[in-house]
Design goal:
It is built from 16 helices and 19 strands. By secondary structure, it is an alpha/beta fold. It has two domains: 2-53 and 389-446, Urease, subunit C, domain 1 (Roll); 57-385, Metal-dependent hydrolases (TIM Barrel, Alpha-Beta Barrel), CATH 3.20.20.140. Strands 1, 2, 3, 4, 5, 16, 17, 18 and 19 form a nine-stranded mixed beta sheet that branches. Strands 10-11-12-13-14 form a five-stranded parallel beta sheet. Strand 10 (149-153), helix 6 (171-183) and strand 11 (187-191) form a beta-alpha-beta unit. It is globular.
Length: 469
């Protein structure tokens, strides 16, 4: 006997969207059939009539525990919010710290998640500044261990201070990292800004009295994104290295990604749903630093272009760049040199993408699945175990109620003490989430447990690393 059958929902599979039944046994999808098909008896039935049934969301970009307050920013509260929001897999970062190597960073990430995850999880190791040859030489071992994605920063982001460690990778080391990533079948995530331009912009802003936080887009500028993306893609071309640009923020970034992809390069672009929904004008609000995520919000036209790029395929994924800050942390600093970055929007990503993409811009349901689950699963080596409703895939399922039409309130959300999404008009929202066949959230009630989540070993397809899928 089957464990669960989800009946009569509009099910989005790789072959299209239609009213179907989804049958689940032993944590995986056993079959997807026409409604009422005989021979599929289940212990439990979930009626999804009038609902949209999609694969559980895959969040490709989250910094767990960034403020070392496990009760607020650790794996337990973050993954709890994620599962409420229809996300069933979270890719966290394993951050190298001074005096330690990448293996130590992975051990720290494993300890952070052990027994704490409501979602499944994996890690991207982040190189620290001036990575040693030993550090770079650990790439093959990590890929063999099922951790094939790595991250670097091309800028130190902020002027030197005790508040934030400098993680900039120079282009010499970047070339060596790319060689190892390419040779071992991995992919490199890049926070891409031109370091010299960013820090010159800081100097000018201070000298000209433009140091208030609302000048952030002038420091972390579109020109910096443009120059850095093109420089990185040229080096990646020389090293035959697949690249995933995180948090694309401007038209210029979209164009650089599109140019590399049209040249046949395995280059992928991500944006954030807050980048696509807000603009630098929001910085001018009282406590407008609450909107900030590095590099920066740009103009309203850039936000429209980011949504268009998600709809038409120029960008591959929508993410959050999560850092689970409190209101006090987020509003504590007031200048371009010290404002806290990060976005605690892991719960709103799937629902906002449905509202803005499907309802308001006519995005197909298949494309919605691509940007929220299938593409991150493909790019980072989890597909079709994750990101697909097909027989044999993990039964990670999100059920969206398209009849929900109202403003979000603080009571709708489950992490930290503020949200930039409070008051946002939604049309459709996740109401039920299953993780590997277990009902984790049902009609807004948490049924899952911390510790349900499992670590995912990953292997990236050569299709992803050799050409722009």
């Amino acid at each position: 006997m089957l464990d669960i059958t989800i009946t009569s929902g509009t099910v989005v599979t790789p072959s299209g969207a239609r009213v179907m039944d989804v049958h689940i046994a032993d944590g995986v999808i056993a079959a997807v059939t026409l409604p009422g098909s005989e021979g599929f008896e289940a212990a439990r039935s979930i009626d999804a009539a009038g609902m949209i049934v999609v694969p559980g969301g895959v969040e490709p970009h989250a910094h767990i525990g960034g403020f070392r307050q496990p009760e607020r920013s650790g794996a337990e509260p973050v993954s709890r919010a994620a599962i409420f929001g229809g996300t069933t897999t979270v890719l966290d970062f394993a951050t190298q710290v001074p005096g330690h190597d990448l293996l130590h960073a992975v051990d720290e990430a494993a300890e952070r998640w052990r027994g704490q995850g409501y979602t499944d999880y994996a890690y991207h190791p982040i190189f620290g500044r001036r990575a040693s040859e030993k550090d770079i030489g650990q790439i093959p071992e990590l890929v063999q261990a099922g951790i094939p994605s790595f991250k670097i920063f091309t800028t130190s982001i902020r002027p030197p201070s005790p508040q934030m460690e400098d993680r900039q990778t120079d282009f010499g080391r970047l070339g060596s990292i790319m060689e190892q990533v390419a040779a071992n079948g991995g992919i490199l995530l890049v926070h891409s800004e031109d370091d010299e331009m960013v820090h010159y912009n800081y100097e000018r802003a201070e000298a000209e009295g433009r140091y208030d936080w609302w000048h952030m887009n002038e420091v972390h500028s579109r020109e910096s994104e443009d120059v850095s993306f093109r420089r990185v893609t040229r080096l990646a071309e020389l090293k035959s290295c697949p690249i995933y640009f995180v948090h694309v923020s401007a038209v210029e970034g979209i164009q650089a990604v599109a140019a590399a992809r049209s040249a046949g390069m395995p280059v992928y672009g991500e944006t954030l749903h807050n980048y696509a929904s807000f603009s630098a004008a929001n910085y001018r609000e009282e406590n407008g630093m609450k909107y900030h995520t590095y590099p920066s919000l740009k103009d309203e036209a850039d936000g429209r272009a980011l949504w268009d790029a998600l709809v038409d395929g120029a960008l591959s994924t929508v993410a959050t760049d999560l850092v689970a800050t409190t209101w006090e942390e987020k509003t504590r600093f007031k200048t371009v040199a010290d404002v806290t970055g990060g976005h605690n929007g892991i719960e709103t990503r799937v629902g906002v993408a449905y509202t803005e993409g499907v309802v308001r811009r006519g995005m197909s349901l298949g494309r919605f699945v691509d940007i929220t689950s299938a593409n991150p699963a493909r790019i980072f080596g989890m597909y079709p175990q994750k990101g697909a409703i097909v027989p044999g895939s993990d039964a990670d399922i999100t059920i969206i109620d398209p009849s929900i039409k109202r403003k979000l309130t603080a009571d709708d959300l489950h992490m930290n003490d503020y949200s930039i999404w409070e008051g946002f008009d939604i049309e459709g929202w996740p109401v039920t989430t299953l993780l590997r066949g277990k009902v984790a959230v049902e009609k807004g009630e948490l049924l899952g447990s911390a510790g349900d989540g499992q670590f995912l070993k990953r292997s990236i397809s050569s299709d992803v690393t050799s050409r722009p899928i």
